[in-house]
């Protein structure tokens, strides 16, 4: 309708893949065509969302759920993301990180900021969608991110089913 292209990322993508493990109260969309913020404001106003100050966050008076549009390009760690998944329900389509990239995104938060909640989300998504997760890609990416020790923690929790978020 408004022609805006964005990809669902972050914790909200993890929620889509593993809602039983992780729940986010905001949706992070990275714009794929760097649309002007004025276009986003107009599109979201049509469904009742308003810009929260001068940020790229949008709120609605009838929900605690917010929308955020972090600046692109779409990347995880040092890797640009060029391919995404598509989920469809009826005539609605959602572009979202592939499962493996969703796990990498959550692991990046663990690797770089020590976010154990993000580690729990990464383990939860990987456990729920294990057939769709490329563990070797995660391992080689973790090596490039100089985080193999932390990757070992992810693998340990994945193998023993430990979703606890404590450090």
Descriptors for this entry?
167 residues, alpha+beta, five-stranded mixed β-sheet, two-stranded antiparallel sheet, 6 helices, 9 strands, 22% strand, elongated
Characterise the protein shown here:
- The protein has 167 residues and is an alpha+beta fold.
- The protein is 41% helix and 22% strand.
- The chain has six helices and nine strands, in the order βαβαβββββββαααα.
- The strands form three sheets. A five-stranded mixed sheet has the order 1-2-5-4-3. It has a two-stranded antiparallel ribbon with strand order 6-7.
- Strand 6 (75-76) and strand 7 (79-80) form a beta hairpin.
- Helix 1 crosses helix 3 (99-113) and helix 3 runs antiparallel to helix 4 (116-128).
- It is elongated.
| Main β-sheet description | 5 strands, mixed
Radius of gyration of CA atoms, rounded to a whole number: 16 Å
Mean pLDDT: 91
Order of helices and strands: EHEHEEEEEEEHHHH
Number of helices: 6
Number of E-type strands: 9
What strand line-up does the widest sheet have?
Answer: 1-2-5-4-3
Unreliable residue runs: none
- Structural class, from secondary structure content? alpha+beta
Give the distance, in angstroms, between the N- and C-terminal Cα atoms. Answer: 44 Å
> Strand-residue fraction?
15-25%
Helix proportion: 40-55%
Task: Tell me, briefly, the overall form.
Answer: elongated
Q: What can be said about this structure in brief?
A:
The protein has helices spanning 10-17, 37-45, 99-113, 116-128, 135-144, 148-160, and strands spanning 6-9, 26-31, 50-51, 57-60, 63-68, 75-76, 79-80, 85-89, 92-96. With 167 residues, the chain is an alpha+beta fold. It is elongated and about 45 Å long.
């Amino acid at each position: 309708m408004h022609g805006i292209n964005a990809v669902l990322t972050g914790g909200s993508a993890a929620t889509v893949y593993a809602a039983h493990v992780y729940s986010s109260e905001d949706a992070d969309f990275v714009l794929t065509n760097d649309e002007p913020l004025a276009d986003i404001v107009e599109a979201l106003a049509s469904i009742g969302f308003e810009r929260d100050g001068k940020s790229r966050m949008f709120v609605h008076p009838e929900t605690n759920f917010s929308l955020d549009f972090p600046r692109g390009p779409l990347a995880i760690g040092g890797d640009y993301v060029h391919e995404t998944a598509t989920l469809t329900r009826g005539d609605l389509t959602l572009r979202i990180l592939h499962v493996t990239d969703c796990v990498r995104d959550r692991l990046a938060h663990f690797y770089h900021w020590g976010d154990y909640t993000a580690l729990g989300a990464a383990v939860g998504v990987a456990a729920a969608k294990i057939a769709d997760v490329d563990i070797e890609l995660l391992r080689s990416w973790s090596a490039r991110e100089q985080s193999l020790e932390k990757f070992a923690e992810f693998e340990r929790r994945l193998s023993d089913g430990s979703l606890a978020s404590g450090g």
